Amino acid sequence: MNAAPEVIVRLFTPADLLPCTEVEQAVYGSGAYSTYFFRQLHDLFPRLLWVAEDQRTGKIVGHLCAAIGQGGQTGWILNTAVLAHYRRQGVGRRLMEQGMAELRAAGVQRALVTSEPENEAALRLYERFGFRPVRLEPDYYGDGCDRLILECVLNETQSLADEGGK
Ligand SMILES: CC(C)(COP(=O)(O)OP(=O)(O)OC[C@H]1O[C@@H](n2cnc3c(N)ncnc32)[C@H](O)[C@@H]1OP(=O)(O)O)[C@@H](O)C(=O)NCCC(=O)NCCS
Predict the structure, then answer these.
(1) What is the DSSP string of 53-100?
(2) What domains can be seen in the chain, in order of their start residue?
(3) Which residues line ligand 1 (CB under 6 A)?
(4) Which of 44, 88, 128, 144 is least crowded, fewest Cβ atoms below 10 Å from its Cβ?
């Protein structure tokens, strides 16, 4: 795997708002997060929003959004996105390393992420970080599409699987 040394991973700043929205639209089309969403996520969780930047051009080529749920026990990887041209070069992995390190540092007991069941790239990426499927949630976004919920236990606690959530 090419480690894409020209790409650095760093914390998001408000100057990244529009570039991140453009990455979103390129990757997710009509399902893209809005500029408004990025701004509010940054206000809420400034250490849980990371970007990948091509240092040669200053272009934002990917990002990771994470959040921590009420009560502080559950972290969420909300979204990872890498522009097609930059995929399979370790950018998603490096974004995940940062996001997961921050969730660990924040003391969350488990991390969750959702994926379309057929999204092989996302599933393999998350599995590499210890995520395992715990249940399928039908019609997750109300649009007829199912989502797989994956969990990674970070600190010993009861997992969704133990709760019979599978
Ligand atoms: C998922 C995504 C973020 C991965 O980003 P990436 O930069 O290509 O990932 P990396 O190069 O860091 O890959 C890390 C590991 O993930 C897995 N992986 C990534 N892409 C894969 C693919 N197309 N097929 C199988 N495994 C894949 C591999 O295990 C890979 O390690 P390896 O290259 O040593 O085999 C990227 O494909 C993407 O943006 N997809 C569209 C948006 C999306 O679906 N996001 C997830 C939402 S749930």
Answers:
(1) EETTTTEEEEEEEEEE-TTSSEEEEEEEEE-GGGTTSSHHHHHHHHHH
(2) 1-65+79-108 (3.40.630.30), 109-166 (3.40.630.30)
(3) 1, 27, 80-82, 87-93, 115, 119-122, 124-125, 128
(4) 144
State the pLDDT at residue 38.
98
How many angstroms separate the CA atoms of 5 and 70, rounded?
37
User: Any idea what the Cα angle at residue 101 is, between residues 38 and 15, rounded to 5°?
Assistant: 30
Name the residue of 23, 53, 87, 120 whose CB sits within 8 Å of the most ligand 1 atoms, as the mutation to test its pocket: 87
CA 120 from chain centre, in angstroms, equals: 15
pLDDT, residue 161, reads 62
Residue owning tokens 């969420």:
76
Q: Is this prediction's pTM over 0.70? A: yes
Q: Which atom of ligand 1 is nearest to the CA of 114?
A: 48
Tally of CA atoms within 13 A in the half-sphere of 72 that contains its CB:
5
Query: Residue 60 Cα, ligand 1 centroid: separation in angstroms?
Result: 17
pLDDT tens digits for range 13-55 = 999 999 999 999 999 999 999 999 999 999 999 999 999 999 9
Ligand 1 atom at minimal distance to the Cα of residue 86 = 7
